[in-house]
Amino acid sequence: MTRPHYIPNHIPDPSYVRILDTTLRDGEQSPGAAMTPRQKLDIARQLWKLGVDVIEAGFPCSSESDFKAVKMISEEVGNCVGVDGYVPVIIGVARCNERDIQTAWDAIKHAKRPRISTFIATSPIHMEHKLKKSKEEVLEIACRMVSFARSLGCDDVQFVPEDAARSEKEYLYEIIGEVIKAGATTVDIPDTVGITMPWEFGKLIADIKANTPAIHNVVISTHCHNDLGLAVANTIEGARAGARQLEVTINGIGERAGNASLEEVEEYTGMHLQPHKALVGANAFVHESGIHQDGWLKHKATYEIIPPESIGIERSSGTGIVLGKLSGRQALRKRLQELGYQLKDDEVASVFLHFKAMADKKKRVSDADLIALVSNEVTKAESIWKLGDLQVICGTQGLSTATVKLISTDGSEHIACSVGSGSVDSAFKAVNLIVKILKDVCCLIYFRISLLELSRKIEPVKLVEYSVTIVTEGVDEIATAHVVIRKENNHDSTEQNVHPTFSGTEAGKDVVISSVGAYIAAINKMLGSN
Ligand SMILES: CC(=O)SCCNC(=O)CCNC(=O)[C@H](O)C(C)(C)COP(=O)(O)OP(=O)(O)OC[C@H]1O[C@@H](n2cnc3c(N)ncnc32)[C@H](O)[C@@H]1OP(=O)(O)O
Ligand SMILES: CC(C)C(=O)C(=O)O
Ligand SMILES: [Mg+2]
Question: Residues in domain Pyruvate carboxyltransferase (predicted)?
Fold first, then answer.
């Protein structure tokens, strides 16, 4: 059978059912499933080979790497013509705000059939607790944002009333009718928390079809979650009731217990208990993406249909959310509070930027990583020395050598070179040389302090403790270095306890750079302590 061409607002063959695969978006919301842009592109190529009609490529506003992934997929897979002449639709997902929508459009616009999918929650619990908006406000935002998406030149706009299954039906008919007037070409009806029975979900689709003005002009889609193990059954009932686009993921992965599975038919057999197994899987009550985490932190029932405790699953503090590349500020702030950090808004915003950059490189950001990030960020303002450049030579022949360039607060650059027993040792010694030389010649004037005061501040340094933790497996993971130093006064080298210690922590991809960063952070704290 040849596929009918996809033309927004025109349904040439009402019996044709399109498959939308959201492995790259909702699938990635599965805890631990973060993918690199290159991996996403590979998966998109496979989805195209499978003949998937619509590829939901990601959430471009969520991170630079997701923007890059969606853009690469749009430019390549979004222009691939299949044997039947079909070119897949490529979706970029966006919240109902101009920034998300503009970013999504920038990422997808080079695809032959780009589609923006914009969502906003319509259930009473989400509107009240998560969005803190009235029905009227949500209706107005939804219409305005669909029009905005169309105004960018995007002629295919999907609207998603998030948590539709728990929304008041009359309100659903109204908002869907209004967004169709505003230019929506597909309406996706999600059972966001996977709460419905198959007959209820089928009836929901049938009711929307029967009661929504102008619905015959658009495609109705299903998006079913598997919290009760019914995602596939509900999807099939949705299709029987008239839905003509079905949203699925490879292996049924997705937020919490996952989505309807692309390959699953009716039977479920499995030797292993997969993490996204309904109710009892390790991820069934774990929230990965920022918008879910934010809602869950404000009110648990926004994204959980039952409390896990009610079925005997205990949740200790610190669980329920995992921090990764899809997390937002609210979740980050909460975890930092649990770790004992009360940061101001601008500090959270600054840590968030570094957090996102780190999360793009690794699947999970651990507590140790967070502590390192905060330590770097909060002490940054007091930095007297910054690492400019670092070069090390090491090998089996001994004589490791390091060349270090440090930049002081006045912008002047200082270079020193030292040998040592290893890369880190030689690099620390080179740092010491810069600090000590400056003390001896007393040539640096910073912070308008006197020469006497200066020489007191930069007394030689004694390394008390040094450790490196590679938190996850693999040589390309993040190394968190921790250094503790003590001021050594040449004139008074007696009791240790008269000299306080100073610690520094830094995380990064390279062990030596992280170590030197941590060492300099500790020196900065020491210099700033008097
Ligand atoms: C049902 C679903 O699957 S929804 C899709 C889930 N996917 C994701 O969350 C993608 C990954 N997310 C992220 O990277 C981040 O959450 C971001 C970049 C999108 C946002 O990060 P932040 O700006 O730090 O916000 P954070 O995630 O902490 O909170 C979400 C905010 O968006 C608001 N919001 C949630 N949904 C919507 C929506 N559809 N339209 C507009 N605003 C929304 C929330 O009310 C909250 O606002 P507040 O901080 O003013 O209370
Ligand atoms: C954003 C929408 C489609 C979603 O993932 C959901 O409601 O589950
Ligand atoms: Mg979903």
Answer: 17-286
Residue 161 Cα to ligand 2 middle (Å): 8
- Contact (CB, 8 A) for 187 and 180: yes
Distance CA 316, CA 411 (A): 48
Q: Ligand 2: distance of its center to the CA of 223 in Å?
A: 7
CA of 255 to the centre of ligand 3 (A): 6
CB of 162 closer than 6 angstroms to any ligand 2 atom: yes
Determine if ligand 2 sits within 6 Å of the CB of residue 194: no
Task: Spell out, as residue ranges, where the chain has pLDDT lower than 70.
Answer: 1, 263-264, 266-273, 316-318, 376-382, 398, 437-460, 470-477, 489-500, 529-530
47 CA distance to ligand 1 middle (Å): 27
Identity at 160, one-letter amino acid code: V
CA-to-CA dists, residue 394 to 50, 388, 398, 422, 425, angstroms: 49, 20, 7, 7, 11
The residue whose C-alpha atom lies closest to atom 7 belonging to ligand 2 is 192
Predicted TM-score (pTM) of the model is 0.75
- How many CA atoms lie within 13 Å of 211's alpha carbon, on the beta-carbon side? 13
What's the ipTM? 0.98
